[in-house]
Predict the 3D structure of the following.
Amino acid sequence: METTLIFREGLDLPEFAAFVLLDDDEGTQALRSYYARYAAIAARHGVGVVLDTPTWRANADWGARVGYSEEALDDVNRRAVQLLEEVRVEAGEVEMLISGCVGPRGDGYSVEATMSPEEAQGYHARQVEVFAGSAADLVSFLTVTYPDEAVGFVRAAAEARIPSVVSFTVETDGRLPDGTGLREAVEAVDEATGEAAAYYMINCAHPTHFEDVLDGGDWLERIRGLRANASRMSHAELDESEELDDGDPLELAADYERLRRRFPSLNVVGGCCGTDERHVEAVCAAWTR
């Protein structure tokens, strides 16, 4: 979402915070148009769609950086769900799930400071509870960089009685930014939470960065979503790039199709940095072929 809105549509997103667009009519319309393109893909291919609220940065630390109080964040999180309720009505017969999007306290690419599971639960509980009290069908924690923060999030969602999804950022070696292996991370969060998460996803990496760590085993059945980058660049290279590397949609779709045999339970496919509706439509076409 953020790379599309910034690089393709020329919008200003301070601190990569898309939720600020909800504060004026022009920004809200830009979001509505963005979501409608993905609902249309689902309609064309006869599949369901999960749409995330534009609230990846709408937590206390990142919100404060762009001038939002906790009360203002509560309000914008609610309005984000309301927008998607309207999109769902406009989409007609398309089966659509609204996901309350939660982002990390720190950066989604690196680990500068960590929290204990208890601290993470307390930190994310407020945003999760707002989503649980709305029309959101689930909450998704995207770009997770270390397991303990995921444990806290899943516990907060369980307490709020809303299904939760955890999506891990992985580096070019298939490991989380803190060095934890992908399998180790999934198993650690499941063990600490009694398998309370609905499922896991991989995000923010090109398929070639992580396919070598998919070594089989029951843990792979817990990964049901994939949101890969279009670019083969590392996170450090992407951070330094002044231009968007959007790769090749058909090549990315072929990568997804190849990975399908490795993921017996994978049924949520989308994109992360550099992807847009071209990539997701190509992936969807390959997946449903």
About this structure: The longest strand covers residues 96-102.
